[in-house]
Amino acid sequence: MSQPTTKPHLSLSKILQMNLGFLGLQFSFGLQQGNMAPIYSYLGADEASLPILQLAGPVTGLVVQPIIGAMSDRTNSKWGRRTPYFIVGAILCSLGLLFMPLSQSILMAASLLWILDAGNNITMEPYRAYVSDRLNEDQHNVGFLTQSAFTGLAQCLALGTPALLVGLFGMNKDAIGANNIPDTVYVVFTIGAVLSLSTILWSVIRVPELPLTESQKAEIAAQPKTASATFREIGSAIVEMPRPMRKLGVMMLFQWYAMGIYWTYVTYSIARSVYNTSEPVSDGFRSAVLTNGTMAAFYNAVAFVAALLMMPMIRKIGARKVHAAALVAGGLGMMAIPQMTDTAMLFPAAIGVGICWGSIMGTPYVMLASCIPPRRTGVYMGIFNMMIVIPMLLNAATFPFYYEPWLGGDARNALVLAGVLLICAAFAVLRVKDSELGTA
């Protein structure tokens, strides 16, 4: 489906407002990254089973995102093509966040995570397409890296708020409910529920989608709307996938397998290296959770700044080189974190992780948008996000088998492996040639 040749040029203020919903969306992801593994541990899960319990995100992403992408490409409603999906997803996300801290069992927490991740993925996929729909190609750089900047800011707030509640507002970090979940988790998840819905509503009201042209409406009307037609469209798009997108898939495999390891095991690595404990119900472990939250808030603040600085750098030397350098920085940072035995030394190591994260959430989409046909923006954004969730599914399926025999059951070794994989991702992205981008 073709878009108008020239779209209205948006001011930076409008681009910021259209991406404000990413603040709420990524606040939710930040809460998951910083809290889901500990929540499972509070409820009695063992470390080796954590990747399996985190399957909700990868599986819902694998199933939901390409389907929602294909459906939104074919949607013509009075609210727009992407907006209905934003709203439904934001409501589900808010409900999942509200009830998660009330979990009384591992099964309940896992079930709520499925609802939460379904909501996140329903919103995430059309949001990427929305930026591509709304902006001319010369503004894609600013659009996607603004999303990346909001990702850093949102996750900085999500991960740093528990420590602020303790240090600034005097909450007791050891105050827990009957389910062993700290009171700080209750408060921050409620904040996330409010932000998830309110920021999405702000974005879609302040910067509505462009109206479809008559030819676009006619093309949508002529397309079959059955479930089988949707799956055929996804299959056809995979078969006809542009060559540079296939190359980016190799990078995504290394990159997201590494991130899955990092998010699951960084708290456990800090607990061992800094607090000399591996016991989830200990005071040292709760301290490690707060330390990781503060460190993650710091590296997300770095990501916020890095994403802004990458905008002129990408214009000057290209997206693939910028992303490769960021991945190397992240790899070195991840390998350094387990070597630190003092809290203060974690933060210099986390700078590299922040630079990497600032690039991961924006730069690959700049490359992708330049090599896919506009009429298939939604479905290809969905398929690209399958390249996020498949590595994380592989992580969940394979990691429990070698965590003990190969890595000694030590989370510090897991982080070193994650760093090596990010450096492999850097070499993979350099296989994409500049001449292959911007040719769709």
Automatic annotation (TrEMBL):
It is a multi-pass membrane protein. Its main location: membrane. The chain crosses the membrane at residues 52-71, 83-100, 144-165, 185-205, 248-268, 288-310, 346-367, 379-402, 414-432. It is found in: Membrane. It holds the Pfam family MFS_1. It comes from the Bacteria. Keywords: Membrane, Transmembrane, Transmembrane helix, Transport. GO terms for molecular function: transmembrane transporter activity. This is SLC45 family MFS transporter. GO terms for cellular component: membrane.
